[in-house]
Structure formats: structure tokens, C-alpha cells
Amino acid sequence: MDRYDLALIGFGGVNRALAELIDERGAALTSELGFELRVVAITDLRLGSLMQADGIDLSAVLALEPGANFAPFAGGDPEPRNEYVIRNTTADIVVEATFTNPVDGEPAISHVRWALESGKHVTTTNKGPVALAGAELRALAADHGVRFEHEGAVLSGTPILRLAERMFSGLRIRGVQGILNGTSNYVLGRMEAGLSLPDAVAEAQELGYAEADPTADLEGSDVQLKVVILANEVLGADLTTADVSRRGLSTVSAAEIAEAQRQGRRWKLIGDAHRNDDGSVTASVAPVALPLDHPLAGVSGATNAVAFDTDLLGTVAVSGPGAGRVETAYALLSDVIAIHAGRGALIGAATDV
Ligand SMILES: NC(=O)C1=CN([C@@H]2O[C@H](COP(=O)(O)OP(=O)(O)OC[C@H]3O[C@@H](n4cnc5c(N)ncnc54)[C@H](OP(=O)(O)O)[C@@H]3O)[C@@H](O)[C@H]2O)C=CC1
Ligand SMILES: N[C@@H](CC=O)C(=O)O
């Protein structure tokens, strides 16, 4: 029986949901998946660091009272010693789920670098490292014979990156368009129902959809990162966030939302990347008032949807959760499953070097 030891970096909504999943369904997962999961290290800004090579008692950690930290545990420290833990943990896989920094991707990019450099696989839901340093980190992973997996960086647990990578072989993808942010879509729907913007945002925060700074959701920088990831990974472009024009929800007033409703339209924050005839890729984020019969107009709540424009199949659309603690924890689990499935190839690649 294989076993993967995990180090969780950041212990907020998503990594807690992963810990709960392992704690509550570990035995069932083991028999379904053919491998065991164990958490051997956790670091978090407020909780500090905890390293236990024999496996952490997740129920004890999940039951910590607000304000408590890891100091009283064996192997515990009140400080989040991220670099020390990432480099020295006995974990096979580092799970990066600290906040997404849309400006420079730090400290998450460093977390991922330290893990890959020390020969550990990485799974992350953090969009910063993927959008802002994806090529470098993929190369670093290949150099060290490990994997850099990040399914949850776009559409949470809905597996569109792996779908595009594995199932679209032989197709030419001309463009990608969609609703790529759960919070803004949820907020727009709640404002249509009469809620104020602050109340709608507070609900999205409570439900675990919003970024640590929800401005990133509302003003489009979260979608900008996701458009960069889709453009680079699906269209083979080499974009940075500066290449993606951005307008956020603050450019739409409550009156315009109400007016659109009267006209049979619905505002959606749309991310788009498409290949031009000259081979270049144009990308944008902007609110658009869609007619109600548009396929994206009916996508509501934290559900997201992506339409791939392909040469042989026309439009292929996928819809599913775009945010949520449990849904995003599933993305991490799916990455571990992908690492497990690819382990033979990695052993082969490392031997070849
Ligand atoms: N929630 C969702 O629906 C989705 C989230 N994501 C991404 O997943 C990641 C995690 O999301 P989520 O769990 O919701 O976010 P949270 O804000 O709930 O959790 C992040 C955790 O990381 C901690 N943290 C921040 N900086 C550091 C640091 N330098 N070292 C150690 N810990 C740190 C935070 O502490 P503190 O609270 O004290 O700042 C917090 O406990 C984010 O990058 C997010 O963009 C992706 C898809 C969907
Ligand atoms: N805050 C993001 C979380 C997923 O990336 C969102 O609301 O979509």
C-alpha cells in the first residue's frame, strides 16, 4: 500500500477542508484510491508550525480553540517557520494554500520553489505561482523529478485544466471564454435579488468563496490571473497579467444592474482569451450585460463556466463549482491522485537523467 505524507502550508478554509476530508474519510479514500494520506506538517500565519513525522492527529488540530496555536504540541512552534518546514519536512507532497497575491505571487512562489528544490511534489490552489511563475516552476519540478500540480487554480475542483490537457488532443483551441470567479458571480446574483454590495460580499466571505482581500474578486484581478493560466496552458501563449486588460464590477452601478434586469439582460464578469489570425493572443476581463438566452447568463451563484472554442468540435462548455472550501480541497485531492497515477513515469524520468 502506498502512502503520501503531506505538508500543509496555510491552514485556512481550503487546507482545513482537506484535513477534514482526510480525517473523516481517510479509510474510505484509502480503499477507493489504493493509497493512504497522512499529514506530517502544517504551517500557518496565526497557528505557527507543527511537524510530526509519525502523522499529526488531525482531530486535535481541527478542534483548536480560536486564538490557540501549535506551541503546546510536540513538534509545535508558535512561529510559521515556512522555509524550515518546507525544506526539512519528511512530507512527499507540499500543499500550498496560503493567500493569492495577484501582484507578485509571494510568498507562495517561494513556498513552491523551496518544496520543488528539496525534491517534494507540490499541489496548490494558489493562483499566484501558477499565473506569475508557472513556466519557471514547471521547469524546476522537471529538473527535480517531481510534479507541480494546480488543478484548483481555475474553477476550483471542476477539472478543466486536466480536461483541456488530456482530452482535447488533436483539437486546435482558438479561444477560451467564461465566468471564472465565484465570488463576483455570487455577488452579482445577490445584488439582483436586492442585497447591497457589502452584504453580498459578506455572504461570499462567510461561504468561503472570497479572497483574503475580496477586491481581487470584484475588480477582476483574480480573473486576470485565471485568464493568464488558461491562455498560457490551453492556448500555448506566454502572457503576463499586464497583457490582460481588466475592468471590474465597480464600473457597473446598482442602477445599471436594475436596468439590465428590465431589459432582459444579466451582468456577468467575463474572462476571455482568443487567438488572432496573426497568431497573437488577446485577453481581457470585463463586465458584460448578457442577454438572458446567452449560455453564460444562466450560470448563477458560485458556479463558473468555461467555453472552449475548438476547430473540430465547435464550442465545448464546462460548468461547475468555481469556489468553495470543500470543492477546492477536492482539487488538491485530485492533484494527489494525478501524482499517484504518474509515479511510474516520474521514476522513469528521474532514472533517465
Ligand atoms: N476558497 C476558495 O474557494 C478557493 C481558494 N483558492 C485559493 O486557495 C488558497 C487558499 O484559499 P482559502 O483557504 O480560501 O484562503 P484562507 O484565507 O481561508 O486561508 C489561507 C490561510 O493561509 C494563511 N497564511 C497567509 N499567509 C501565510 C504565510 N505566509 N504563511 C503561512 N500561512 C499563511 C492565512 O492566515 P491568516 O488568515 O492569518 O492570514 C490563512 O489561514 C488561496 O490562494 C485562494 O486564492 C482557489 C480556488 C478556490
Ligand atoms: N475567490 C475565488 C476563489 C477561487 O479561485 C473565487 O471567488 O472564484
What attributes does this structure have?
about 350 residues; alpha/beta; Dihydrodipicolinate Reductase, domain 2; 2 domains; 13 helices; 13 strands; binds NADPH dihydro-nicotinamide-adenine-dinucleotide phosphate; Homoserine dehydrogenase; methionine biosynthesis; homoserine dehydrogenase activity
Outline the structure in words.
- Helix 1 crosses helix 12, helix 3 (82-88) runs parallel beside helix 4 and helix 7 (182-192) crosses helix 8.
- Residues 347-353 have low confidence and may be disordered.
- This protein is of the alpha/beta class.
- The protein folds into two domains: 2-156 and 326-352, NAD(P)-binding Rossmann-like Domain (Rossmann fold), CATH 3.40.50.720; 161-322, Dihydrodipicolinate Reductase, domain 2, CATH 3.30.360.10.
- A hairpin with a 3-residue loop joins strand 2 and strand 3 (48-51).
- The protein is built from 13 helices and 13 strands.
- The chain binds NADPH dihydro-nicotinamide-adenine-dinucleotide phosphate and ligand LTNE7NMQ.
- The site of ligand LTNE7NMQ has 11 residues, from helix 7.
CATH architect. name of the largest domain: 3-Layer(aba) Sandwich
What gross morphology would you assign? Answer: globular
Mean pLDDT: 95
Strand content: 15-25%
Report how far the terminal alpha carbons are from each other: 27 Å
- Which oligomeric form is depicted? single chain
Any ligands, ions or cofactors bound here, and which? NADPH dihydro-nicotinamide-adenine-dinucleotide phosphate, the ligand N[C@@H](CC=O)C(=O)O
| SS class | alpha/beta
Q: What is the helix/strand order?
A: EHEEHEHEHEHEHEHHHHEHEEEEHH
- The CATH topology of the largest domain turns out to be Rossmann fold
Helix content: 40-55%
E-strand count: 13
- Give the full name of the CATH homologous superfamily of the largest domain: NAD(P)-binding Rossmann-like Domain
Biggest pleated sheet: 7 strands, mixed
Strand order of the biggest β-sheet: 4-3-2-1-5-6-7
The overall number of domains is: 2
CATH class of the largest domain: Alpha Beta
Unreliable stretches:
347-353
Catalytic activity: L-homoserine + NADP(+) = L-aspartate 4-semialdehyde + NADPH + H(+); L-homoserine + NAD(+) = L-aspartate 4-semialdehyde + NADH + H(+)
InterPro entries: Asp/hSer_DH_NAD-bd, HDH_cat, HDH_CS, HDH_short, NAD(P)-bd_dom_sf
Binding site for NADPH: 127
GO molecular function, one term: homoserine dehydrogenase activity
